[in-house]
Amino acid sequence: MSKLFIAGEVLHSAGSLEELKNVKGQKAVIVTGGSSMRKSGSLDRAIGFLNEAGIETKVFEGVEEDPSSATCFDGAEVMRKFQPDWIVGLGGCSAIDAAKMMWVFYEHPDADFDEMTKPFSVPTLRNKAKFIAIPSTSGTGTETTGLAVITDREKGVKYPIVSYELTPDIAIVDGEICATMPAHVTSNTGLDALTHCVEAYVSNIEDNYADALAKGGLDIVFKNLKEAVNNPGNIKARQNMHDASFMGGLAFNNAWLGIVHSLSHQVGALYGIPHGASNAIFLPNVIRYNAKATERFPELAQVIGKETAEDLAVAVETLRSEVNNQASIKEFGISQEDWDKNLDYIANNAFADPCTGFNPRKPTVEELKDIYNACYHGEVVNF
Ligand SMILES: [Zn+2]
């Protein structure tokens, strides 16, 4: 049985934030990150629209990049005192993912975090509140996925919490909110969206819907990412990238991801390398590695007027350099000594990552190490 898991209602156009005026409810907690949503005015506009709907609001501000479980407990405590019937995640994916986990601990104060790191272990939600996701970056597609990535800082591990319970009730995909996104965040998140499209397309789950979304999202990223980076005020390009991010998210919510994400989660947790930036480093070599096990890359290459898996890998490398992104892990200032010391640890964790099971080619830990080493130096994989 195939079922398409998608946000309950999807409002996607420039200016769609205003639709908050039409939400029915009593109280909302808005969860957001540092200060970008306040500075850009999006937070005040969201509060204003909810107030117009007769909804009382409370703001939980300051969710950090790569949010920890401790932050999620803090937010849940605020929610338990305020008793909202809506939770609004407004900002980058860190804010929205944290808001999702706050929602879980608000409804289930005794839920065990470690238990929920096992796939589909989140208890039933919507007993107290429903969820609105309003992304300000165009990458993870968290506004339509049943995924929240939470970091355990002590262990240096990023946990993807996976459950369709976490798929938002309303997604507001408004490109205007992205207009103030810095260039490096635009490029990193856009390359993440691209990676979702590629990995979902070649994953070992066959799904016609996901395939169409992945192809469509890939096409939009190649046509719009450079413009969104170079001309941040171009709302058309912003909206296009926002749509591509949603499409990539919807594709992988149903067809899953592969080892680019398995490799990336580890260097993100250990070295703090931005998720999209490491994805863009691993993706070309993983395309080369996976091309030995799947015939599907030429179909994706055709979307951008190319022919082979190698063409697609090179096109990703070209786009990556055109948006000024790094081509190797060592460019993040990680010494060879430090890398060698941690290689076994991250390769084993990548092997155990849930995304590895959906990759079209079953890797060994040794192969993952070889891909890691090639990408550390910015070399090409060919095995
Ligand atoms: Zn991703």
TrEMBL record:
Residue intervals of the Fe-containing alcohol dehydrogenase-like C-terminal domain: 188-375
TM annotation in the entry: none
Keyword field: Oxidoreductase
Domain Alcohol dehydrogenase iron-type/glycerol dehydrogenase GldA as annotated: residue spans: 11-174
InterPro entries: ADH_Fe/GldA (IPR001670), ADH_Fe_C (IPR056798), Alcohol_dehydrogenase_Fe (IPR039697), NADPH_BDH (IPR034802)
Pfam annotation, one family: ADH_Fe_C
Signal peptide residue numbers: none
Name of this protein: Iron-containing alcohol dehydrogenase
Organism: Flagellimonas okinawensis
